[in-house]
Amino acid sequence: MKYVCLLAFFSSPLLAAITPDLVKESALKHHPTVQAAIERLDAGEFAVVGARGAFDAKIVSDYKRQTKHDHNTTLSRTQLEKPLRFANSKIYAGAEQISNPKGFLAPIYHTGNPTTQTGNYTLLGIKLSLWKNLTTDPDRAALRNAKYNAKIARGEKRLTEWEIARLSQIAYWEWVTAKQINRIYERLLQNGETRNEFLVARSKKGDVANILVTENEQYVANRKGGLQAAKERLLRAEYALALFYRDQEGSPLIPSSDEDYEDYPDDLSRFLSHLDLASDIEGLKRSRPDLLNLSLNVAKFDVDLELAKQDLRPRFDVTSEYFKRTVDNRPQMPLDYLMVMAQVSVPIEWNLGHGNISAARARRTAAEKELLLRQQTYGFEVTALRRSLQLRLEQVSQRKIEFTKAKELVDAEIMKFQTGGGNLFLVNLREETQANAEASFHEARLIFMNTILNYQMLVRTE
């Protein structure tokens, strides 16, 4: 029982210290954006299954009856069809029955079928296109684009996971920074209020002028305003973090004011040692999901363009059917025969074809330009971030030096003031300068961490 309690203690997100990794794992598991990306991936893969359904086998039945006085003809055909993925073709097999008691032939334009003789037949047929839709047709085009869409959804899922991981850690470090800055201005206000109590006591004794109390109260009022701004920032940071930090049911967890957390490491330069700063940018482009998705988008428009070109081609479809009589009740008729039909359609106006081709070609060109721009932008972004990483780290070092020097000035000025040789204006000014310098130091660390996270996502390929 003791070990169970310990395990529950360390596994509870409410009791354990909040860390960037904990927030990231929670976001990747429960964030609605990630879950939506998973659903879109499922939808894309199911859409491929649906597009394959255009080639599903099916049973087709047709029944007709024509009458003229006492001359009746009944025509029925039932067949199993299987569309094929080449030449817009299909194969089928089935049975046909034509009943014509008076012995009259059933005209083809009435029956819609090539047979015109009375009797029961089994049949085997094939139909295919030899010109228009030979290379592609709407069903095959839809299947190819559905596969492309599924690949795009898969890439978008990876990008979404990377983006949520990045945003979750940015939200975490913003929260940490907001807590530290809030603490700075709490301490700054506390110093002013403590000094105000000291000055009021001395003023009552006549040791200092009342104007010094008024001056210090002015500083206290200003510091209260600064603390309120810091509190408001911390409040926003807490709610922003709660969007990524969630419980086991996926509900947001707002961190408490005394929540334990993982602070910035003392040596930020160690982050640079783990970064890939030398990969070939062209190689990265070939593996980036966002660029691959744009390439797939171009491929989809290639399919649309190929399909549009079919509208200018004449249709030349061939159907061949083999019939065999199942009941030999007419010796004068053959037991089996082969029927071949050709269907030809030639466009004499080309508005449809030219319009669709031009539109598809324009969409493809636009997609190519978008891909080109993104490739160029990506290369510049990687290069710029690589150069800025070291500069950001140097800014952190400079802000730390500035903070250290400001603290030394405050210590010296307070010592002078306590011994009667200092100046209240300088004490307050030095304290506020120190607080602002310390806040700038934390802000510089936040900017550095954001740059690191942005770069890590930018060069990530798996």
Task: Summarize the topology.
Layout: H1 2-11, H2 20-30, H3 32-52, E1 58-68, E2 71-83, E3 90-99, H4 108-111, E4 119-129, H5 138-205, H6 210-242, H7 270-273, H8 281-285, H9 289-309, E5 315-325, E6 336-345, H10 351-418, H11 424-458
Antiparallel strand pairs: 1-2, 2-3, 3-4, 4-5, 5-6
Q: Please, could you describe this protein's structure?
A:
By secondary structure, this protein is an alpha+beta fold. 61% of the residues lie in helices and 14% in strands. The chain contains eleven helices and six strands. The protein has helices spanning 2-11, 20-30, 32-52, 108-111, 138-205, 210-242, 270-273, 281-285, 289-309, 351-418, 424-458, and strands at residues 58-68, 71-83, 90-99, 119-129, 315-325, 336-345. A six-stranded antiparallel β-sheet has the order 1-2-3-4-5-6, with no helix packed on it. Helix 2 packs antiparallel against helix 5 (138-205), helix 3 packs antiparallel against helix 5 and helix 5 packs antiparallel against helix 6 (210-242). The longest helix is centred in the middle third of the chain and has 68 residues, at 138-205. It starts with a helix and ends with a helix. Residues 1-15 and 104-111 have low confidence and may be disordered.
